Amino acid sequence: MENLLQRITFDQNVLRGKPVIRGLRVSVEMILELLAKGSTRQEILEDYPVLEPEDIQAALTYAQQLVAGEVVLDRTSV
Q1: Residue 19: is it exposed, middle or buried by C-beta count within 10 angstroms (0-12/13-18/19+)?
Q2: Contact of 21 with 34, CB cutoff 8 Å
Q3: Averaged pLDDT, 66-74
Q4: How far apart are CA 52 and CA 73, in angstroms?
Q5: E strand or H helix at 28, and its extent?
Q6: What's the rounded Cα separation, in Å, for the pair 9 and 47?
Q7: Minimal CA–CA distance to 59: which of 39, 38, 31?
């Protein structure tokens, strides 16, 4: 898993420091959005030939790590 997360980089000069794949202008957010809208991994790889299959897995792993550290609030009082 640590190897996958090394594919996620941050640079203030690239998309204002958002998490991106390997310093490219392809954000983790965009990959997650495409998957959420129903794109397959294969479709994403075809549309973005600079990406590798491990990049998509890295985006998912990064998102999972963020959610895993999330603090859950009492939703009944909101």
Answers
A1: buried
A2: no
A3: 83
A4: 37
A5: helix 28-36
A6: 21
A7: 31
**For residues 71 and 69, what is the distance between their CA atoms, to the nearest angstrom?**
7
Say if 74 falls within a structural domain: no
Q: Is 76 a domain residue?
A: no
Contact by Cβ (8 Å): 6, 52: no
Q: What is the model's pTM? A: 0.85
The CATH number of the domain holding residue 64 is: 1.10.10.10
> Residue with structure tokens 């895993």?
68
Taking residues 4-28, what's their average pLDDT?
A: 96
Task: Quote the domain boundaries for residue 18.
Answer: 2-68
Q: What is the pLDDT of residues 20-62, one digit of tens each?
A: 999 999 999 999 999 999 999 999 999 999 999 999 999 999 9
